[in-house]
Every structure is written in structure tokens, then in C-alpha cells.
Amino acid sequence: MKSREFFCFPGLEMDVLESLKIEFDRHISFRDKRPGIVQVIAPLFHEDGDMLDIFLDVGKDLGNGSVRISDYGMTLMRLSYSYEIDTPTKQKVLDKILSENGVIDDNGSLYIEAPQGNVYPSLMQFAQTVAKVSSMQAFKREVIQSMFYETLNDFIVHTLASYRPQQHFVPINDKEELDVDWRFPIEGKDIYLYGVKDTAKARLAVLSCLEFQKAKLPFRSVIIHQDFETDLGKKDKRRLTNVADKQFATLGDFQIEAEEYFARESQVA
User: Fold this and answer.
1) Model-level pTM greater than 0.70?
2) What is the mean pLDDT of residues 6-27?
3) Tens digits of residue pLDDT in 168-221
4) Inter-residue contact 45 to 128 (CB < 8 Å)
5) Across 129-174, where does the E strand assignment appear?
6) Backbone angles phi, psi at 255, to 5 degrees
7) How confident is the model at residue 141 (pLDDT cuts 50, 70, 90)?
């Protein structure tokens, strides 16, 4: 392929394809897909060993010699075979991954624009982003870790609204640092609810509940874990178990049992 016929931008001392060959120590080649578009053939792979689908749009005039690096929709199509981006939460995680890496989503086609003299690092950045998005397990893990509190809060607002939840409630006036994630003002004895996904939050919940007990506040404490089995060490599990009135081992468990639990607590009150 005569790469020079595609690169006539003023100011480029070396055409982009030849520059990439040098950067990759000649372990790269290019395949014409259609006029002005070449596919990158390089040692850049998905977890299963398939080569990443990366294309250079060398025919589009972006100004100043910039080159568009794109996947032409292949990444999200590949992901859809095993994992759909079918909820607002999943979409937020995808948007976060892309924005952190400077990649744009144009109706499912991912791309990044590489300025003159910066094509190689931009290509590597794009490849890493595509590989991350393509990994279903990595994507699932990021959804869970990034959206635990948001998912919990959305569930409370939409499912438990009849119990008049109050977010960031401070039971002791002069101790604002001991705020409760959610207060449910059930007559006779409030429910104080905490979401816990790490050691720091678990210890804050323990300290807060001990202070509330010391102040003789009428409350019941409820802990919602991201994953009780994996998120905390033995000592933190024991401390939390000793002080909490009720715990749900996962957010999924809480979503299934919450309405029945709150109905029962309201009857008791």
C-alpha cells in the first residue's frame, strides 16, 4: 500500500503510517478497508486473543493533520454478544470509562482524534480503552463498584418512598460527622440505614451506632452490604455484627427483602 497518497497534510515531516511502523518496531501493518480508511494490524488483543478492531480514517480532513482513530462500532457490537448496555447505570459506567480516556461515543462508534505528532500514544490509549470496554467481567466489576451507592439510593427513593426516607440525617446535633445515610421515621423507633462497601464505611457505621446507643436514641440500625463475604475482614465483620440490628449480605438481597422487612418493622412499631 502506498501510504503517502493518503497523507498530504501540511507540516507533517513523515507520513503517519511510516511513523507508526517505526514506533511499533515494524510489528504493524495496514489493510485498506475502503477509500480513505485503513485497518490497523498490530499486536493489540482482546482477552480472548482476538485482535482489536482499530481503524485510521486517513481520508477525513480534520484540520492540522489530525487523524481519527476509530473502531467503527465493532467494540460495543462485540460486547453486546454477552453483555448489554441496557440500563442507565451501565451507560453511566461506559460514559465514565470513555470520558476518562478522551474517547468519544458517536452512536455506538468509538473514536479519538489524534493531533499531529501524537498518533502513536493516542492509538495506544484508544486500544487500552477498547480492551477495557470489551471485557465483560471488567465492565461488570466497574458497574458494581462505581454504582453501589447510586443503585441503593435509587432503590430507596423509588421503592421505599412510602416510609418517608430522609437522606444524610444527623441524629446528634453537635456531631455532624456521624450522619446516617438514610433515616426512616417509623413511629416509636427510627430506622437508621447505612450502605457499606468497604472497611472505612463499616468502621464509620460501627462508631456512629455506638455513639447513638450511648446517647440512648430510639433507633434500629440496618446495614446494606455490597458483598459481606468479600468486602470486609473478619474483625470488621465481627464489630459490625455485634452492633447492627439487621444486615443484608448484598444489595440484591436487600432489594428482594426490603419491602417485607419495612412492612414488618412498621407493624411492630
Assistant:
1) no
2) 66
3) 999 999 898 999 999 999 887 899 999 999 999 999 999 999 999 999 999 999
4) no
5) 166-169
6) -60, -35
7) low
Displacement of CA 255 from its chain's centroid (Å): 20
What backbone torsions phi and psi does residue 245 show, to the nearest 5 degrees? -85, -35
State the CB neighbour count (10 A cutoff) for residue 23.
15
User: Which amino acid does the sequence have at 136?
Assistant: M
CB within 8 A of 60, min separation 6: which ones? Answer: 36, 68
CA distance 178 to 169: 9
268 φ, ψ to 5°? Answer: -65, -45
Inter-residue contact 25 to 43 (CB < 8 Å): no
What is the spatial distance between Cα 253 and Cα 263, in angstroms, rounded to a whole number?
A: 16
Find all residues with CB under 8 Å of 9, minimum gap 6, and list them.
64, 65, 116
Q: Coil, helix or strand for 168?
A: strand
Pairing of strands 180-184, 109-114: unpaired
Rounded to whole angstroms, the Cα distance separating 21 from 13 reads 15
Sheet holding 219-225, edge to edge: 166-169, 180-184, 190-196, 219-225, 246-248
**The three three-digit cell numbers of residue 169, written as one number:** 440525617
Domains along the chain with CATH numbers? 3-134 (3.30.1460), 142-268 (3.40.1350)
**CA-based nearest residue to 169, from 181, 156, 160:** 181
For 144-160, how does the pLDDT look when each residue is reduced to its tens digit (9 = 90+)? Answer: 666 789 889 999 999 99
> Which cell goes with 86?
441496557
